[in-house]
Amino acid sequence: MTTTTRRRVGIAGALVGAASAGIAAAAMAKRYAVGRIRLRPDLEAGEPFGELRGTDHTLITSDGVALHVEVDEPQERPQERHAADGGAPLTIVLCHGYCLSLESWHYQRRDLRENHRLVLWDQRSHGRSQRAVSGDTSIDRLGDDLAEVLATFVPGPCVLVGHSMGGMTIMALADRHPELFGDKVRGVALIATSAGKLAEVTLGLPALVSKAVHKVAPGTVSMLGRKGSLVDRTRHAGSDIAFLLTRYMAFGDSRNISPTLVDFAETMIRATPTEVVADFYPALMNHDKLSALHVLDPVPTAIMVGDKDWLTPPDHSRAMAEALPKAQLTEVPDTSHLLQLERPGAVTDALRDLIKRVVP
């Protein structure tokens, strides 16, 4: 081996060694960060996440997709009944967000089911609902799905509660079925959601970086969707990274976030196939229902957002509140996108207050 060859081999070996050291250092830093979080006091370690159950139902939509629906009847006393509706009780309908499932309403379900009739459902392609293979994954279609859920499982008046994409589903219902609001729909809660312009969200990044991210995101998401099965295997292998992303993107500044809670949220997100993530992404980016919000004006409406929400920032909730001047806007401090999980007491209290406004 010549001197030149030995030198090149030595340089290559040094580069490989440096790269290996960098990878090892990054892995150690990741393990250290996850370890620090997991060693904190975990007040939710005994919480039965994913174990609450109601009566299971399957709804076949008008385009042939099987939706999973659960109904919880009041456990203690009958809910207030409305004579004008044949004595039917008020029903609380909970609509979950993108990449989540009906399990994301765990705390609200736990605390409201004793005294209120609840209907929870998995949006198409999410949770235990059927994949909408080659089907409609638009927000408008989700609004039609909600209309069919109401027609089948809600005999009387109701309050609609939507988080993130679930809030957009309610807006689509208002746009496509305005006749339901004021009669069937007596109240609305919009939690960590948006009426449009999600493609302009900065995600907390500098303006130029955010613009570049949004420029490449559609193509990247589409490419990942085409390689969904491979990406899904990688997602399962990278659970520590997913844990950290979920902790810092979906939850706020509090150091007391339960590791068990983060695991619960991350498991829901990871259970959503990459192909589904890609299918719904364009619908979210193209969502624009600000002009439909006036339909909600006759009914009591609550709008809630975390002040550290990077995904549906407070400005989006303020824009909805401007379009609905009678709505009650609440900005929860030090809280991010998974508001109903991070600050369950604040959300449940707001829903109880909304129900009182609907049923004086």
From TrEMBL:
Entry keywords, A to Z: Hydrolase
A molecular function (GO) term: hydrolase activity
Every AB hydrolase-1 domain range: 91-344
Pfam families in alphabetical order: Abhydrolase_1
InterPro entries (alphabetical): AB_hydrolase_1, AB_hydrolase_fold, Epox_hydrolase-like
Protein name: Alpha/beta hydrolase
